[in-house]
Amino acid sequence: MQEIGIQLRAKKSTLFTLGVLGLIFYCPSWNSYFVSDDYHFLGRIDFSQSVQYFAKSWGYGNEYRPLLPFSYSLDATISDESPIGFHVTNTVLHLAIAVLAGLSAYAFGLSASVSILSAVLFFLNPVVHESVLWISGRPVLLGALFVLLSIWTFARSRIDSSKFWYVASMVSFVLALLSYEGASALPFLLAILLLPRSRIDFKVIRLIGPYFLLLIAYTIFWNVLFGGKITRFTVESSLFGAVCSCYSMLKHVFFGSTLGIPLAFYIFLLFLFLRTAKNRRTCMFLFVLMIASYLPFFIVHGFADRFAYLASVPIAILLASMILSVDYGKFRRLAVPILIVVLVGYYGYSMQKRIVTWKEAGEITREITSGIKRLRPNLPADAVLHVLGVPEMYKNAYVFITGLEPAIQHLYHCAGLHVSMNTFPSPEERGNVFVFQYTNRLVEEIVR
């Protein structure tokens, strides 16, 4: 009993240490300013308004995420209009997801060392930058949090034969569906996790069946609410398009795989790992999990940075397994630490570069909005603004791909202002028309 207590305290201290280091790692991102879609909810969402989203779409349409505005409302209550509270919440959610990823791996039979390294690699993988560093990436985090919580509690119910953990898993699935549509992959993930350990019989169907029934009910509700339209994006119906989407996701989850040295590193690890039949089965199993995690997004082009968030969990487990489960012979004591340092260092350095990029993108949005306000402290309520030279993206971060108009409206506390991005006013346009030009990090007014 004393030895078990020591092991539990060691695990808790390890988790606490990793948590503190994780918060320190991401804290430079906390003062990144609002960008793009962030302005659609900034100053517009509170707890009383959040209730309405149980009966209508969030965002641009065909997005049923009623729990999301409550999380933003909580941030706004604590942080007001400072971005810090919003970013801290994203970081804490991402940290919790990484911990749950490690706990789930451990609950399904992987070693403690593989589970911990999996959590670290997932936490640092730069492929998750959009979901974590962009405030509007929150729905992906909430959905993944409840999906992994459902998987972990499901595993606990199998270990403890407890109805409590099974009910907790079902409740987590419902919360996941109310957070993000990507959570619809969960029943398939559970089926993949469970079936290799069990025969297909009534007991297995009884365990997994309720998840699929919930998914069917959710799908019917979605179709009734949105008139049968699955998504606001163009739907890919060809097999070739789905394969291309899978390939795009694969490039993302293996971060840097389009570059020579990282690709060679991944191939080297795979070559060593796949030499045994057991490891080949593990690799195939994790690849199937990865594809199932990405299942809801095969029909949609692009956005792999966001959609590959959950799919990067089994890849993190695979990378940890490749490093720790290979027999390096007499070089093991030297090879394992070097490989861990190389991969963790590469991911950590690359993620810090992403943090800098999003901070710079936020400074661009701040300069555009504050520059207009500085030049025109007051504007008439019916003013029409044309803002030229506005970048949609800065490197791999959003600037104003959307959101310029609500940003200006929020700045002047006037919902009647109309803002046009990167279009010059026509000669016939009359009234209170103002033209601004953004160049070289400065805003200037153009007199017509």
Q: What pattern of helices and strands is seen along the backbone?
A: HHHHHHHHHHHHHHHHHEEEHEEE
Outline: globular
Helix content: 55-70%
How much strand?
5-15%
How would you sum up the major sheet?
A: 4 strands, mixed
Helix-strand makeup class: mainly alpha
In the residues, how many domains can be counted?
2
How would you sum up this structure, described in words?
The protein has about 450 residues and is mainly alpha-helical. It has two domains: about 1-325, no CATH class; about 365-445, no CATH class. It has 18 helices and six strands. The chain has helices at about 1-25, 40, 45-50, 70-80, 85-105, 110-125, 130-135, 140-160, 165-175, 185-195, 200-225, 240-255, 260-275, 275-295, 305, 310-325, 330-375, 405-410; strands at about 385-390, 395, 395-400, 420, 435-440, 440-445. The protein has a four-stranded mixed beta sheet. A hairpin with a 2-residue loop joins strand 5 and strand 6. The longest helix has about 45 residues, at about 330-375. It is globular, with a radius of gyration of 24 Å. Mean pLDDT is about 85; it is low at about 1-10.
